[in-house]
Amino acid sequence: MRCFAALLGLLLASTAAQAQIAPIVSAGALTREVCATPTVTAASAYVAGNVVGGLITLTAFRSSAQGAPDNGGIMQSIRITSKSVIAGEMDVFQFNANPTNTTFTDKTNPAINALDVTKVLPMIAMATGSSKLGTMTVWGVDGLGRAHVGTAGQSDYFVMVTAGTPTFGTTTDVQFCATYLLD
Question: What is the pLDDT of residue 30?
């Protein structure tokens, strides 16, 4: 019985000490979804490999003036919505900094400048869009867990490239959204 009481005392002391340890990860204090509506070409078919809407800039991050320990976070998901029924894959390229040496023009094939190549992160394939709700299409990827380091600034940069041949109904047909857990 004394052995059990001593073991219980050690366990309780250990638990109390662990409760005083602060969490190592600070991301997740705030979740934010940020969206942009890039201008696309209406009523004219794109070809596979075309940029959809040009460079997309999302500003989601808090500054240290807003109480953030860093202007970063973790990108959790991406969603693309079209007001038109669209078949085919959309591929998303994210950059770790603004690719200022390259111009990404809607409905043209991308040609990245050599000075921006090291800013490209791995492609996120948005393989299958769904039009099961009728006259629209939505693509999405959840559980990305991709870090945004605050030293690169408070914005995130993306380019969408179509693998299909979409025709959008209006110039504001497409919405691009990303959800973040912020520092």
Answer: 79
pLDDT digits (tens, 9 = 90+) for 84-133: 999 999 999 999 889 999 999 999 999 999 999 999 999 999 988 999 99
The pTM (predicted TM-score) of the whole model is 0.79
Task: Show the tokens assigned to 48.
Answer: 């596979």
Question: Domains in the chain and their CATH numbers?
Answer: 25-182 (2.60.120)
Q: Is 145 left (phi over 0), alpha (psi -120 to 50) or beta?
A: left
| CA dist 44 → 16, 58, 69 (Å) | 66, 27, 46
Burial 72-101 (b: 16+ CB within 10 A, else e): bbbbbebbbbbebebebebbbbbbbebbee
Q: Kindly report which listed range (8-12, 116-120, 145-149) carries the lowest average pLDDT score.
A: 8-12
Q: Are 43 and 100 in contact (CB under 8 A)?
A: no
